[in-house]
Design a protein that fits this description.
By secondary structure, the chain is an alpha/beta fold. It has twelve helices and 21 strands.
């Protein structure tokens, strides 16, 4: 459920008409719903209220400070993958004791910063990373609390580019190699082994891969304890999918039942890293139609948003529901929704059945709260679009539209020119 809907024929974000925002700040723009963020977080968290658990939002899904501060106020921690994300989480009010640091390529400077903040846990993904963390921690007189991210070699049945839990993935270490990584960790100064971590992929739409992964990790925790390791935390990652207008993934309560059943009796603090599940359907992208172009066999709906604003359809062949900002009963026809970027791949939808709008009408791209604005760029020297948050009948610009002055100021012309 989200809080984007038609009211009296006009599309609204909570109680604010989309056309009102568009008229005041222009298009394209992203819009996030506070009520939806709140509902999604509370629905997820309530299913783990009966166990020791930390909910650490995956900041990579949407790192806007307004979004982070909303989740922080609800009690969320943060799963981060860079120093920048740590700084954003702290700026939003998330406590270091609720931050876990994931990622396959942590640098020495990032490790040092995280140690200075005394974050809760580093999720280690290789022996070289572990050795570097030991050296940095020792030089600072700190102890780095760690879990090793293990790959249970489970097929998550999701898109290849967001599948992470198989043994040949760049992420984590294969289950068979993990014992030697723990043996190394136990010997290294500055390292405090406290847990195990796993994350098998993103946008999973069935529970079976989770069940398989959690069962294998449970057995591994018991194996480690049999070897004398004290394992107090179990990071089960994220990955629960959302409906993008096609199919219905499992609900959070069903996911929670699997997670709690497979980890029952371990006595570990469970860590969850939901990202898309919290923010995906809490955001939309609003664009304006520039032209309706009729070809010999195809009709193109050319809008002012492009692949540099929302890259998911181009990168992942992702589906986003697209609806008009004004309700209509007009007959539908097949159209290609495309952007103005000079790439054939700048396509949001091909052969999509919809009521044909006219130039200047507003179109709403649903389920854009995750991996939308956060992956945007300046290709074709296009400006980064603004981000808006709505709460009830109010809205605020939480990231203004980039200006051409700011775009040009990024570069320096060398002195010899």
């Amino acid at each position: 459920m989200d809080h984007f809907t038609y009211k009296q024929g006009k599309y609204h974000a909570e109680d604010v008409a989309i056309e009102k925002i568009a008229g005041e700040i222009g298009t394209p723009f992203y819009c996030y719903s506070t009520a939806t963020l709140t509902r999604h977080y509370n629905v997820f968290a309530q299913h783990f209220s009966d166990v020791a658990a930390k909910i650490c939002y995956a900041v990579k899904a949407n790192s806007n400070l307004g979004v982070l501060a909303t989740l922080a106020k609800l009690g969320s921690g943060a799963d981060v993958v860079s120093e920048g994300e740590i700084r954003l989480a702290l700026a939003a009010g998330i406590k270091p004791a609720d931050i876990v640091f994931s990622g396959v390529g942590k640098t020495a400077n990032e490790m040092a910063f995280a140690l200075e903040q005394d974050i809760f846990q580093f999720n280690i993904e290789s022996e070289p990373e572990l050795e570097l963390l030991s050296r940095i921690a020792q030089s600072k007189g700190k102890k780095a609390r760690i879990a090793v991210r293990v790959n249970p070699d489970v097929d998550p049945r999701t898109h290849a580019k967001i599948s992470t839990g198989q043994k040949e993935s760049k992420f984590g270490v294969a289950m068979a190699q993990a014992p030697q990584v723990y043996a190394l960790a136990a010997k290294l100064p500055g390292i405090d082994v406290q847990g195990v971590s796993v994350h098998i992929g993103s946008q999973l739409t069935t529970l079976e891969p989770f069940q398989q992964a959690f069962a294998r990790v449970r057995d591994f925790v018991l194996e480690l304890r049999g070897r004398g390791y004290v394992i107090n935390t179990l990071d089960l990652g994220g990955g629960l999918g959302i409906p993008y207008g096609q199919g219905e993934p499992p609900l959070p309560d069903a996911y929670a039942q699997v997670a709690k059943r497979e980890t029952a009796g371990l006595g570990c603090t469970l860590i969850f890293e939901p990202g898309r599940m919290l923010v995906g359907n809490a955001g939309i992208l609003v664009a304006r139609v520039i032209y309706v172009k009729r070809g010999e066999n195809r009709t193109f709906l050319i809008v002012d948003a492009a692949m540099n604003d929302l890259i998911r359809p181009t990168l992942y062949d992702a589906y986003h529901e697209i609806v008009p900002a004004k309700e209509t009963s007009a007959a539908k026809e097949a159209v290609d929704v495309v952007g103005p970027v000079c790439e054939t791949g700048d396509i949001f939808a091909e052969g999509r059945k919809m009521a044909l709008p006219t130039a200047d009408e507003l179109m709403v791209f649903r389920s854009c709260g995750a991996y939308g604005a956060v992956m945007a760029g300046n290709y074709n020297a296009r400006l980064l679009v603004p981000e808006v948050m709505v709460s009830g009948s109010e809205y605020a610009v939480v990231r203004p539209r980039q200006t051409y002055k700011e775009l040009i100021a990024r570069d320096n012309i060398p002195a010899w020119l």
